[in-house]
Amino acid sequence: MQEAEFLEILRANQGVLVKVCTMYCADAETRRDLYQEIILQLWRSFPTYRKEAKISTWLYQVALNTAITDFRRSRKQGVRLELSEQLGQIPDTSSAVEWQENVQWLYRAVDTLSDAEKAIVMLYLEEKSYDEIAEIVGITTGNVRVRMHRIQEKLRKLKTD
């Protein structure tokens, strides 16, 4: 029963896990490894899920904590990602190409943010309310607003540089 329930939750929320992996990993192999690690951590913590919070809140908390821990561990091992040279190139005028380049730029820009800022941006892009973001990340709603404003300023500065 517990395994079937867990698998159903994973199926229903697979997109959330993929987005967390994409936010914290640049290449496909690392994303797959992180995805597997998140699934393992979710399975380990599933028996202790008390169902007091929404399932999505619990999923985000476990996934983000796992991603941040994995990211810090890889940083200690000397793995570094550098910004692509394409960051400074003039975008193509084609709207589809421009959109794709904007998305790539956003991922590179978000990669320059701290772990906590990445989590906030990802949840914001998931259209979570500030209250939900606060609950998932474990800070106050006012702190989410302040951090979001600072993140927006950082991203604007990157865009103009």
From TrEMBL:
GO terms for biological process: DNA-templated transcription initiation. Residues 104-151 form the RNA polymerase sigma factor 70 region 4 type domain. InterPro entries: RNA_pol_sigma-70-like, RNA_pol_sigma-70_dom, RNA_pol_sigma70_r2, RNA_pol_sigma70_r4_t2, RNA_pol_sigma_r2, RNA_pol_sigma_r3/r4-like, WH-like_DNA-bd_sf. PANTHER family: RNA POLYMERASE ECF-TYPE SIGMA FACTO, RNA POLYMERASE ECF-TYPE SIGMA FACTOR. The lineage of its organism: Bacteria, Pseudomonadati, Bacteroidota, Cytophagia, Cytophagales. Keywords: Sigma factor, Transcription, Transcription regulation. The keyword Transcription regulation applies. NCBIfam families: sigma70-ECF (TIGR02937). The keyword Transmembrane does not apply. Residues 11-76 form the RNA polymerase sigma-70 region domain. This is RNA polymerase, sigma-24 subunit, ECF subfamily. It comes from Runella slithyformis (strain ATCC 29530 / DSM 19594 / LMG 11500 / NCIMB 11436 / LSU 4). Belongs to the sigma-70 factor family. ECF subfamily. GO terms for molecular function: DNA binding; sigma factor activity.
